[in-house]
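Re: that backbone. C-alpha cells:
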C-alpha cells in the first residue's frame, strides 16, 4: 500500500510540474495581444502561436498576393521580442524580409508583396529566454 501511495505522489509531482511548464508559455494570449498592435490601416488576417520550447524554429505558410502590403508583428514573453526573430521566406525559401535589421531585432516587419504565391513565416530564436511568443499578420492594399 505504501508503494502505491508513493507512486501516486511522485506522478502527481510530475503532472503538476508539467502543467506549470505549459502555463509559462501562453501562446494564445500572446497572439491575441498582438492583434490590436497592428499599425493603423492594416486589416487582421491571422494570428500565430510561437512555441519554440522543443524546436529550433517554428514555421507557417500563407499565400501572399501581389500588390498587397503585409505586416507581421511579434509579442513575446519578457522584454520586447525576447530574441524571437520573424522572417518571411518566398516559395524557394529565400529570405525576403526579417525582423533582424543590422543586428537589432524589431517587433514588426512590413513586406510589400511583388509576386503572388506561397510564403513561409519563420520564427527563430537568438538568445531568447523563454522561446515563446505570439504574432499577428495583417494586410493592406
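Recovered sequence:
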Amino acid at each position: 500500500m505504501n508503494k502505491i501511495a508513493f507512486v501516486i505522489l511522485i506522478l502527481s509531482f510530475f503532472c503538476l510540474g508539467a502543467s506549470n511548464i505549459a502555463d509559462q508559455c501562453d501562446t494564445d494570449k500572446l497572439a491575441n495581444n498582438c492583434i490590436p498592435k497592428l499599425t493603423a490601416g492594416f486589416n487582421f488576417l491571422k494570428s500565430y502561436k510561437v512555441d519554440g520550447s522543443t524546436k529550433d524554429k517554428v514555421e507557417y505558410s500563407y499565400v501572399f498576393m501581389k500588390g498587397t502590403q503585409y505586416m507581421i508583428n511579434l509579442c513575446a514573453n519578457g522584454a520586447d521580442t525576447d530574441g524571437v526573430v520573424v522572417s518571411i521566406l518566398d516559395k524557394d525559401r529565400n529570405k525576403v524580409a526579417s525582423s533582424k535589421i543590422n543586428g537589432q531585432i524589431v517587433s514588426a516587419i512590413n513586406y510589400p508583396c511583388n509576386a503572388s504565391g506561397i510564403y513561409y513565416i519563420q520564427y527563430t530564436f537568438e538568445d531568447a529566454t523563454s522561446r515563446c511568443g505570439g504574432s499577428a499578420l495583417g494586410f493592406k492594399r
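The radius of gyration is 19 Å. The CA atoms of residues 31 and 117 lie 24 Å apart.
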